[in-house]
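Researcher: I'd like a structural prediction for the single chain below. Treat it as a standalone chain; there are no partners to consider.
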Amino acid sequence: MFRSNPCIICSRASMKMRVLTDHRDEGSQLPPNPRIICSRASIKMRVLMDHRDEGSQLKANPCIICRSEKSACNPFRICSYKTLNLKSFRICSYKKTGVYTPSIPPASLSLTPLSPLSFRVCHNAFMAPEIRNIQRHVLPNGLVVITEPMSHVRSVSVGVWIRNGSRREIPQENGLAHFMEHMVFKGTERRSAEAIAREMDSIGGMLDAFTSKEQICFNAKVLDQNLPIAFDIISDLCLHPRFDSTDIKNEQQVVLEEIKMDMDNPEYLLHETFTRGFWPEHPLGRPILGTPDTVEKFSPTVLHNRFKEWFAPDHLLVTAAGNVTHDQVTDLVAKQFGHLQPTGGLEDHVAPQTSAPIQIDRKPDLKQVHLCLGVPSLPIAHDRRFVVAVLNNLLGGGMSSRLFQNIREKRGLAYAVFSEVTPYSDAGMFTVYAGCAKETIGQVLDLTLAEFRALKESPVSDEELLRAKNHLKGSLMLSLESTSSRMSNLARQELYFGRFFTLDEILASIEAVTREDVQSLAQEFFRPEQISATVLGPLNGFTLDRNRLAC
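Model: Treating it as a single chain, here is the predicted structure.
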């Protein structure tokens, strides 16, 4: 049973509140009201025992919780409801990582025990509320600047995000976004490639970049006093690349070697083959790196034309997190990018049509067989995205997941086995991967399908659901402890949601997922007719047809 009232301990209104039974004896002066406390699953609750009667007085030391004479214990009211008339109770603030529960009060307190009243105390009482000071500013030319100060750190992470990934490429230019990301590091009008590297090394910073299907990002992490230098370097990369013809030829060889390296990686090759069949004839189905045929044809003219189109200010987003103010970042951005002229909004993406092929790729030289099963999933901003996250965590998202336990731990059939979600702005993909011996590929396939079937037929247990939620919550909160993670989080929320969700909102959304939600989504996802399968390796006569994918 849940109520949506604010927690009477930490006053966080966005959390689900659990109504607990009041364990009272007949002599208790508490009215027959249930006690409402925070049931946020990611925060451990401590059970305390009240050993006082109406007239008892608590002494300052020792603490009745941890019995430490060094603690600074402050009075704290369990309930602020006027109708409950609860007495003041002292909470130990000496050990914030745990609370000791004495079975008998210290003799020095001379307390007359009552029948114990059980209280669950919200651990949020020891914690400052999560308040993210996120600020957003749009320059006159359309460039968006978003910052989040983190005054307790000495670093700053800053990123320039281009809203053009590989899915905006035409087929003949497949791989151009990734190649352009490489080329800006080959030198600018002001710096050589070596000067870029030396300048970042001289301030002890980290400079990086990546290309995805929907963005290109250039980012740096430096000490706070070195932010102006780092941002000057990133701005130079994004504004003044040379695209020298000799550098282009050299980098084409580098990227061709990168493609060969990835093609020699069976897991990479498996997923590229799977994705190409899953979204055929669509940019999302093409490789980010491109192909040897397309990469070899890139020229300075092509690079300059696409650069002007893609790197326009109204296509850019700058995010920063760390020991920095919003005005500092805004001034730096305006100085470097304020003079640019917008080119107009981006065209909307065309959503892909999903296919469900069965692809068998025989590679007799490999030692393992690699399996990928997948189904269509939901876009990244879908209302049920948290149900997808919980389902993924239950199935193969961690060491306690069903696939990991049943295929690896109990039977020893695979070293790597997991599920993952790959969401985009208008589509998504839910996949399972396993690598195993050629003799056991059939068994691994059948066990995976059995887990699909089990999730469809029966709701997961309360314990399993709680564990999955706690895993997601813990991973989320830990991920936000670094400046680079927060910088990326700011970009993700702006690019895909257009608003910023508080941590409590996200945790509440995870907590709101029910067993029935998970079962319903599993029934929607795991239908035999929409399961795609790719198998790669020394198959030893293994075959696969649609009938075997029944679940």
